[in-house]
Amino acid sequence: MRRVSRLTVAGAATASLALALSACGGTSTEASSSQDAKGDKGLAIAYDVGGKGDQSFNDAAYAGLRKAEKEFGYETTDVEPTDGETDADKTQRLVSLAKQGHNPVIGVGYAYAAAVKEAAAKYPDVTFGIVDDSTIEAENVADLVFSEEQASYLAGVAAAKATRTNTVGFVGGVDIPLIHKFEAGFKQGVEDTNPKAKVLSQYLTQTAEEGGFSSPDKGKTAAESQIEKKADVVYQAAGLSGQGVIEAAAANKVWAIGVDSDQYGQQALAKYKDYILTSATKDVAKAVYSLAKSVEDGKPESGIVRGDLKTGEVGLADSNPKFKDDTELQQAIETAKEKIISGEIKVRTS
Questions:
Q1: What is the pTM of this model?
Q2: Which residues contact 40 (CB under 8 A, 6 or more apart)?
Q3: Which residue in 39, 35, 47 sits closest to 18, CA to CA?
Q4: What is the fold of 3-146+284-307?
Q5: 248 near 226, Cβ under 8 Å?
Q6: Cα–Cα distance, 271 to 208 (Å, whole number)
Q7: What DSSP string describes 80-143?
Q8: Residue 197 near residue 166, CB atoms below 8 Å
Q9: By the 8 A CB rule, do 233 and 159 touch?
Q10: Strand 276-282 to strand 314-316: parallel, antiparallel, or no bridges (unpaired)?
Q11: Is the torsion defined by CA of 158, 163, 166, 172 positive or negative?
Q12: Helices (H) and strands (E) in the chain, counts
């Protein structure tokens, strides 16, 4: 069950069976009143930097959209970001989706905070969602957040057990508080498991606009630098840039740890999968699907909706047989998981 801080009951469930939106164009003056929205179309999502095909965060959201589309019978819409876009551009995108009758409308990523807040105010009868932000206080907004630090702690346990050089690496896409959570949990997991191990950390950029989440070449260069310094396990929280980290790990025959989705099973990364030890996952797909279902059921989720180890919405993937069959490693991870859930281990977020 998902833990929801509060629920807002809708007057009626959204209708199904609508034609998909082929584009989200229009002008900022097209939608200024909630009366314009018919609410007769299903889920729409607007992607974060990197877009669909990142084999990670955005693709997980798309998986949730596809599940909702199949189960509820309506056609859905997913919209790509554009280079150099502003908050106003994001707002217009969300407003256009709401105006054309989509409900719910989800912005994938913290960068949509200002846009979701503004669009939700214009369309109070439409449910909006935002992934990875907990700052919007509105009755028609669901803040879909995760305890990434908990999954990252377990990734740190795995890295500490797998390293032979006592040196592991962390590559973050952008130097922001969200990615600090990944780093903090990972470092704590390493330190608690193997005090002799050191963690090399690097952020690719200071802002998303500089390509920290969308530049595999930057990820590859950062990982290569850490591997030259003897890192034999590298954990990445870098979106599309993480593909470069995984490529570098495979080329140098060291372990990579993926993020968000189970990257061992991603088709685009298949040639590197033997070097993907595990992935710290967060079930963005479930969060997206659950919000759509709540609207379909006439009881839209609202407020902070958190996924953590206890709810099963963050964790470690075990697709790699070498990881799954390592009894000692699995026991260490299970012990850490139990202690986190019980509160015995308090995982840092910064």
A1: 0.83
A2: 14, 15, 18, 101
A3: 39
A4: Rossmann fold (3.40.50)
A5: no
A6: 28
A7: ---TT--HHHHHHHHHHHHHTTBSSEEEESGGGHHHHHHHHHH-TTS-EEEET------TTEEE
A8: yes
A9: yes
A10: antiparallel
A11: negative
A12: 10, 13
**Which residue type, as a one-letter code, is found at position 283?**
D
The CATH number corresponding to 148-282+320-342 among 3.40.50.720, 3.90.110.10, 3.40.1280.10, 3.40.50.2300 equals: 3.40.50.2300
Q: Tell me, what amino acid is at 226?
A: Q
Phi, psi (degrees; rounded to nearest 5) at 211 = 95, 15
Q: Domain extents for the chain?
A: 3-146+284-307, 148-282+320-342
Nearest to 76 by CA among 86, 66, 90, 61: 66
In tens digits, the chain (350 residues) has pLDDT values of 333 333 333 333 333 333 333 333 333 333 334 434 445 689 999 998 878 887 778 888 999 999 999 999 887 899 998 888 899 999 999 999 999 999 999 999 999 999 999 999 999 999 999 999 888 999 999 999 999 999 999 999 999 999 999 999 999 999 999 999 999 999 999 999 999 999 999 999 999 889 999 999 999 999 999 999 999 999 999 999 999 999 999 999 999 999 998 999 988 899 999 999 999 999 999 999 999 999 999 999 999 999 999 999 999 999 999 999 999 999 999 999 999 999 999 999 99
Residue type, 204: L
CA–CA separation, 348 and 350 (whole Å): 6
